[in-house]
Write a structure and sequence with these properties.
- With about 130 residues, the protein is mainly beta.
- It has one domain: Jelly Rolls (Sandwich).
- It has one helix and nine strands; from the N terminus they run E-E-H-E-E-E-E-E-E-E.
- The strands form two sheets. Strands 3, 4, 5, 6, 7, 8 and 9 form a seven-stranded antiparallel sheet that branches. Strands 1-2 form a two-stranded antiparallel sheet.
- A hairpin with a 2-residue loop joins strand 1 and strand 2.
- The longest helix has 6 residues.
- The N and C termini lie close together (about 10 Å).
Length: about 130
Amino acid sequence: MSHSQNGPKLQTVNLVHKASSIDKQWSPRIVAEMNDYQFKVVRIEGEFIWHSHPETDEAFLVLEGELRIDLPHGSVFVGPGELFVVPRGVEHRTASEAETKLMMIEPRGILNTGHEGGERTAQNDVWI
């Protein structure tokens, strides 16, 4: 949030509205921070790349649509209003059949592709 002389800006965040205003898919945007954690919204469709985050768990909260999270031993389906946490170090791939809007909660500085890199890596610390 922007900080002024009077402290942080205090306002509600409409997650669906924020996610809908992102111009392209697979481009997470920060909507809030809490301590060292960032709340990011994103629009996705299709499949991401397999990756892991050895340093942190990663939480996914579905706003609209259905998220499929592929894990080493099968897939988890996450619907609107549902939350799933991928434990640190567990390889995973997010996917959706149709456009899905979701929020991710993770520590500041975590890349969306983990340590895999590549063309799907999104720029960090972009607010919407």
